[in-house]
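Today's session is about reading a structure prediction critically. Students often jump straight to the picture, but the first step is always the sequence itself: look for stretches that repeat, for charged clusters, for runs of hydrophobic residues. Only then move on to the predicted structure, which in these notes is written as discrete structure tokens rather than atom positions. Here is the chain we will use throughout the hour.
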Amino acid sequence: MKKLKGSIEELKKNEISRRTFVARAATEGLGLVATMSLLHSSAKAEGMNRLNDHHHHDHHAHAATKKGRTWNQTNVNPWDEFLKEEGIPVYRDYHVENLRTLEVKPWKRLGVRGAYIDLVGGEGVNAGYVCEIPAGGRTAPQRYLFEEFLYVLTGDGETTIWNPGSGAKQSVKWKAGAIIAPPLNSWRVHINRGTQSLRFLCMTNAPVVVDLFHNNDFVFNNDYAFRERFNGEADFFASGPEQVHHKDTNSEESEQAGGVYTWDSGFVPDARNIKLKKVAERGHDNNRVELQMADNGMQAHISEFGIGTYKKAHRHGPGSHVVMLNGKGFTLMWQGLAISRPPGAATASGLRSRSAAAVALTGWEKRAREKAATWSSTPTKIQPSGKCFLPNSRRTVLIRKCPLPGRMSSERHS
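Below is the predicted structure for this chain, in token form.
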């Protein structure tokens, strides 16, 4: 009991990582509900502290600095240290209510305004950030060794992309609802072509990459061009119906007996209106399409639920996030935690974290759609269920992993 109390105090003081605390809690006999409650309280307190105190952290350029060896390296979390150096707010906890109104601060590295989203359900696998660009503004050129999916929340703009060492540039124009996946380590500049500020959400696997190398100079200043992924192909960001492909699947690969439909491109012009394919195995009146973008290891899919229906109960590995694109509904979760998703307006947006098993139910007014994303190729585990008679639907996108018009959440692993 004394060791357990010590671990709890270390967690409160941010002297140990959440992962270390979970491991200790399991060996020291702390129950699941109590463990998650402590993580919830710690994340909330840390998020508020970072929001209020982020301006005290000096921003450092991602350049090589000589550091002495330390015997305590295994207790250092490079991702957390990186977030401190970025100098912008970090939102933790299990969800963020509204991505479009989330408070952002000046971000020196990108030359715009932003905030990080590092939810408990991300489990050190995936994380995200919100970027706000003023009218006529643009981000500073960036490249890095982690993948990302960019979902446009508001505004109209353009992204210019080119490979390291190449003078050939490609530009992709986009508007609210678009998804773009810049190729790995390619240079990219995001430009606001509108008359008002715009916002987009990026989901990345940066926590894994930063933790793996714990050398930001290597991650952000690497000249290697992944030409097998992107070599300036003219159709890389194509958006016609020919981008949809059908692949056969077997029972070991997917519960979808009829195979899987996949959108293969670096760009989706409007995730809210892209044509989906019916998938009865996922639930009554459920439609979806997978997103295979930029040859990324991160996966994504868009799902749409009919009025008064729900998606079958399922669970994911760590890092699954859901962004609600439209509609109204709520989510049921269990295995020690349940969070409901309250009805939201068509312009509402936010981020939320879900537990091991979840059921998404639609509300009363119209079809709903979501986008989900995650960094894993592990099949989703589907639990048998029927349909629910609730009069509404929604569309979502999963960035393997991303829930509500603009709302987003991450799912805890089983």
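Discussion point for the tutorial: Residues 254 and 379 are 7 Å apart (CA to CA).
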